[in-house]
Design brief:
GO terms for molecular function: methylglyoxal synthase activity. Its EC number is 4.2.3.3. This is Methylglyoxal synthase. The chain is an alpha/beta fold. The chain has one domain: Rossmann fold. Helix content is 49%, strand content 14%. It contains 7 helices and 5 strands, in the order E-H-H-E-H-E-H-E-H-E-H-H. A 5-stranded parallel β-sheet has the order 3-2-1-4-5, with helices on both faces. Helix 1 packs across helix 3 and helix 4 runs parallel beside helix 5. The termini are far apart.
Amino acid sequence: MMQIALIAHDRKKDEMVNFAIAYEHVLKPHKLYATGTTGTRIMENTSLQVHRFMSGPLGGDQQIGALVAQNEMDLIIFLRDPLMAQPHEPDIIALLRLCDVQGIPVATNVATAELLVKSLERGDFAWRELVHKYKPGIEE
């Protein structure tokens, strides 16, 4: 079972809901996390259970980032709106930076999200289980 975060900016929420509907069968066996409204909308439109954090601007991105920093997240689908300024842009950049530091696969658009979910469906994420067994600390 993988731990997957689903995040979507306001103008991408419909796209995320449609994505969750389309891949419900793939996402169902995994532990899902989402920021506030995104999680609610996914649960309203699918049978998926989603652990909801606060909305992104209120700290939801940082809450997910905390799990990433502890290497407790396996995959993030973050449908970003590149054409709209976000008031919490520093939090978004920090989350993406943490994903890079921890080697967490992250998709920021539906095309990449589909590639990652199809890979998940095939079982290509077994390497993440090894990461969970060996969690190196950061050397100073």
